[in-house]
Structure formats: structure tokens, C-alpha cells
């Protein structure tokens, strides 16, 4: 079972554990003040040459896909190694899972096509999880 399957299972009220760990880890990345939070993460994608992709996640409409390799090029090996260690997977598995989860998560966290102003993004993301709004 892939990590994305575990996340979807956890969101559907089925399996917990690995999937919710992935989502919590991704939410921590999105909410990390050291990287500038959601805005800093989006800026990293834009500066990494993936502006069209990340802007599609924020904007209303279709989300463009991203590959694990593109995630790795934007985030860097050390961030992925840290995430992989938290999840107990390889960096390649972590980047692949991020490629599956980030577009949908950022899309859900920017429902009006704009970055949220203020507030705790981690709490907002967990609220989405509780409401079943992510991947739904």
C-alpha cells in the first residue's frame, strides 16, 4: 500500500497511522516558519522554475502535476531526508508522496485562489482533514 493510499484511507476513516503521519508531516512543512510557511514554500517553487505548477495549485481550476524529482529539486535533499526519516521511508518515497499530496493540500488551503492571511495553517490543514475536505 502506497503512502498516498494510506492518507486516503485515513481521510476516509479507514486506516490511521501512516497516512495521518504523512499528512501531519506535510502540514508541518507547509506551516514551518523557518521556511516562510505556505508563502515561503510557494516562493521556493516559483524560484525553482515551477511557478506555473505551484500557481495552478493556488488558483481556482485544474492542478498541474508535479514529479518527485521536481519536489526534490525545489526542497533539496536535506529537507527530504528529514521528512523521510520522520515517515520511516526513503527520500524517493517521501518526494513521490509529496508530489501526490502537496498539490491537493495547497489547493484546499487556498480555496479562493489566494494565500490565507494569518492564522495557524497547521490547524487549518487539520480542520480540512477532520471535515474530509482534502481529497474529497
Tags for this model:
136 residues, mainly alpha, Arc Repressor Mutant, subunit A, 7 helices, 0% strand
What would you note in describing this structure?
This protein is mostly helical. The chain has one domain: YidB-like (Arc Repressor Mutant, subunit A, Orthogonal Bundle). 68% of the residues lie in helices and 0% in strands. It is built from seven helices and no strands. It has helices at 3-11, 18-30, 37-58, 68-75, 77-87, 91-109, 121-131. The longest helix is centred in the middle third of the chain and has 22 residues, at 37-58. It is globular. The chain starts with a helix and ends in a 5-residue tail after the last helix. The model is unreliable at 1-17 (pLDDT under 50).
Helix-strand layout with pairing:
Blueprint: H1 3-11, H2 18-30, H3 37-58, H4 68-75, H5 77-87, H6 91-109, H7 121-131
What is the architecture at the second tier of CATH?
Answer: Orthogonal Bundle
Estimate the mean pLDDT confidence: 77
Number of helices: 7
Tell me the fraction of residues in β-strands, as a range.
under 5%
CATH superfamily, please? Answer: YidB-like
- Total beta strand runs: 0
Poorly predicted segments? 1-17
Task: Explain briefly what this protein structure is.
With 136 residues, the chain is mostly helical. The chain has helices at 3-11, 18-30, 37-58, 68-75, 77-87, 91-109, 121-131.
Amino acid at each position: 500500500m502506497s503512502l498516498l493510499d494510506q492518507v486516503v484511507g485515513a481521510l476516509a476513516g479507514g486506516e490511521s497511522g501512516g497516512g495521518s503521519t504523512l499528512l501531519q508531516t506535510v502540514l508541518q512543512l507547509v506551516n514551518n516558519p523557518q521556511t516562510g510557511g505556505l508563502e515561503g514554500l510557494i516562493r521556493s517553487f516559483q524560484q525553482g522554475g515551477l511557478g506555473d505548477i505551484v500557481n495552478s495549485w493556488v488558483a481556482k481550476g485544474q492542478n498541474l502535476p508535479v514529479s518527485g524529482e521536481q519536489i526534490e529539486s525545489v526542497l533539496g535533499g536535506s529537507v527530504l531526508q528529514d521528512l523521510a526519516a520522520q515517515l520511516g521511508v526513503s527520500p524517493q518515497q517521501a518526494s513521490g508522496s509529496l508530489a501526490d499530496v502537496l498539490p491537493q493540500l495547497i489547493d484546499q488551503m487556498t480555496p479562493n485562489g489566494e494565500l490565507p492571511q494569518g492564522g495557524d495553517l497547521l490547524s487549518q490543514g487539520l480542520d480540512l482533514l477532520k471535515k474530509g475536505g482534502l481529497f474529497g
